[in-house]
Amino acid sequence: MIIRWCFICVFAVLINKVCLQVTGFIGGSVVLPCSLTQHDLKPQDINVLWRDKDSETIYDLVEGEDSLESQDPRYKNRVQTFPKEYVRGNFSLKLKNLTHADAGEFTCFITHTSYSKHETVQLLINKSTVKPGNQSTEEEKHVPETQSGQMTILLICLCTLLPLIILTPIIMYFIFYWRKKSQAAL
Questions:
Q1: Strand-pair category, 116-129 with 20-26
Q2: Which regions of the chain does DSSP assign to beta strands (E)?
Q3: In what helix (H) or strand (E) does residue 12 lie, and over which residues does it extend?
Q4: DSSP 145
Q5: In what residue span(s) does the Ig-like domain sit (predicted)?
Q6: What is the pLDDT of residue 42?
Q7: In the chain, which residues have pLDDT < 70?
Q8: pLDDT tens digits for 136-155?
Q9: Fewer beta carbons within 10 angstroms: which end of the chain, N or C?
Q10: CA dist 25 to 95, 97, 152, Å?
């Protein structure tokens, strides 16, 4: 019974998909974050594959080099990366000229010589549009900081796991209590 309950708790945590949300405006641009905690990387040892909700190719970085041959035509001339940030583990990309069709999940797959990882970003498109001449906010003009994305992920994980960590011992106590009580009644 206890093992079953623990399995249910662990399963609930695992299916609770942690993903970042980014909001953009029609005609504007957004930065989709993707980073590694490891720094001082050799770009030639890394492959980064960005895919959209339909598994279409947005951008590929293969052994440190751009590979746009398989890029979906919808993303041609709409994607900007930050090559100087690669050595810091930052593989975020900027998606420009947003449309309603861009809304949905984007996944960044990172493979390194020693490990792999993926991050999912949910892009929400606001119904408002960006005024001409104001294509991006001041925040979007700067290169995204890897550390702020990591803090967001950490905060989401803490908010998801903390209630489980607190409630599990309480639930376990009541399970043992009711089990002892029901055995004593027999």
A1: parallel
A2: 20-26, 30-32, 46-51, 57-62, 65-66, 79-81, 93-95, 104-112, 116-129
A3: helix 2-15
A4: P
A5: 27-122
A6: 79
A7: 1-19, 39-40, 128-164, 167, 174, 185-186
A8: 443 444 444 444 455 555 55
A9: C
A10: 11, 9, 22
Reduced to 3 states, what is the DSSP secondary structure of residue 97?
coil
Looking at residue 85, its amino acid is E
Do residues 122 and 102 lie in contact, with contact meaning Cβ atoms separated by under 8 Å?
Answer: no
**Enclosing H/E stretch for 150:** helix 146-185
Look up the CATH superfamily of 2-185.
Immunoglobulins (2.60.40.10)
Closest CA to 95 of 25, 13, 174, 164: 25
* Separation between Cα atoms, residue 106 and residue 143, nearest integer Å: 19
Q: Which of 58, 82, 90 lies closest to 142, judged by CA?
A: 82
Tokens 């949300």 found at: 21
- What are the extents of the domains in the chain? 2-185
> How far is residue 27's CA from residue 12's CA, in Å, rounded to a whole number?
38
Global pTM reads: 0.61
